[in-house]
Design brief:
By secondary structure, this protein is of the alpha/beta class. It has 14 helices and ten strands. The structure holds 1-O-phosphono-beta-D-fructopyranose. This is Glutamine--fructose-6-phosphate aminotransferase [isomerizing].
């Protein structure tokens, strides 16, 4: 547990997490990283896959802990397994952790709750220090987990020289701008309230994103399901033509994450396909956007940020939307039915 003091410091260019520094060689020589988690933490893990592969060039696999624990996964002595859990008590994640350790893997934990079962059982790790999550549905834990994953990818990338100094410094600077941009993104609440008034009776929603924003689409759909009890599905936008497009008609609102630095032209193509089938588009765009603005039924404007850090911002309007819809429908946003804060069975 000694190494499990996630110290996330960004004074100028120094980024430091204890559990990494003291296990530097393991990270430098890693051939593969497997990330296991459940629910929202699993979505953060998928974002981790994009981040780690991009910045460290280490192959990353992401698995549901609830599947991983019951099979015979191929993880061995030189492998790194990262477990992510807000509560640190999720039974499936804890069981996956123990299996990975039994197989000899080095297990790194990302947890919010200090001294939790997962935190006590890992070889090293970082706390997210997101403060208590009072509500059952994870929100700030998600962005905190992504922040740790960004730092992890930056540090390992620097050790392995897979990112150069310029890129490292640029991303550190961008990270420093995140708090201000989060404040800005929270100001979209008034727009989101108005959009929620239009769609609170919808029975289904589709959420689309590409690249690192595909897991954000999954997370947006999960938040809506968890607290509003509305059926929602998240998809990579490019997969839409392989099935979900059959669902699109005038009764299908579709959230599209259409950030400028992402796959902008491709996303515009996806939006046109939906519009041609009379689907309603709610687009998350960057300030100054023109093209999507003209096509979408509603736009939610967020500040510009590097695509690789954008999930920290793009998820906020989706969390706010789930909240507003649940509120309008008279649901208890903090204690949704059938859900527990930590699933310990
Ligand atoms: C995993 C999780 C949460 C979800 C709900 C049930 O929890 O699926 O993502 O919002 O609270 O548990 P954890 O392992 O991250 O604590």
């Amino acid at each position: 547990l000694d190494t499990l003091r996630g110290r996330l410091l960004i004074p100028e260019k120094i980024i430091y997490i204890d559990g990494i520094e003291s296990n530097k060689d393991i990270f430098i020589n890693a051939k593969c990283i497997t990330i296991v988690a459940c629910g929202t933490s699993w979505h953060a893990s998928l974002i981790g896959e994009y981040l780690l592969e991009e910045l460290t060039r280490i192959r990353v696999e992401v698995e549901y802990a609830s599947e991983f624990r019951y099979r015979n996964p191929i993880v061995g002595k030189k492998d790194i397994v990262i477990v992510i859990s807000q509560s640190g008590e999720t039974a499936d994640t804890l069981a996956a952790l123990k299996l990975a350790k039994k197989k000899g893997a080095f297990v790194f934990g990302i947890c919010n709750v200090v001294g939790s079962s997962i935190a006590r059982n890992v070889d090293a790790g970082a706390y997210t220090h997101a403060g208590p999550e009072i509500s059952v549905a994870s929100t700030k834990a998600f962005t905190a987990q992504i922040t740790v994953l960004v730092l992890l990818a930056l540090i390992i990338g620097k050790y392995r020289s897979t990112i150069n100094d310029r890129c490292y410094e640029f991303l550190c600077k961008e990270l420093g701008s995140i708090p201000g941009k989060v404040d800005y993104a929270l100001k979209t609440d008034d727009t989101i309230k108005k959009i929620s008034q239009v769609y609170h009776n919808a029975n289904h929603f589709l959420y689309l994103g590409r690249g690192i924003n595909f897991p954000v689409a999954l997370e947006g759909a999960l938040k809506l399901k968890e607290i509003s009890y509305i059926h929602a599905e998240g998809y990579p936008a490019a997969e839409m033509k392989h099935g979900p497009i059959a669902l699109v008609d005038e009764n299908m609102p579709v959230f599209v994450i259409a950030t400028k630095k992402g796959y902008y032209n491709k996303i515009i193509g996806n939006i046109q396909e939906i519009k041609a089938r009379k689907g309603k588009i709610i687009a998350i765009v960057n300030e100054g956007d023109i093209q999507v603005n003209m096509l979408a039924d509603h736009v939610i404007k967020i500040p510009n940020i590097s695509e690789i850090l954008s999930p920290l911002i793009t998820v906020i309007p989706l969390q706010l939307f789930a909240y507003q819809i649940a509120y309008i429908r008279g649901k208890n946003v903090d204690q949704p039915r059938n859900l527990a804060k930590s699933v310990t069975v």
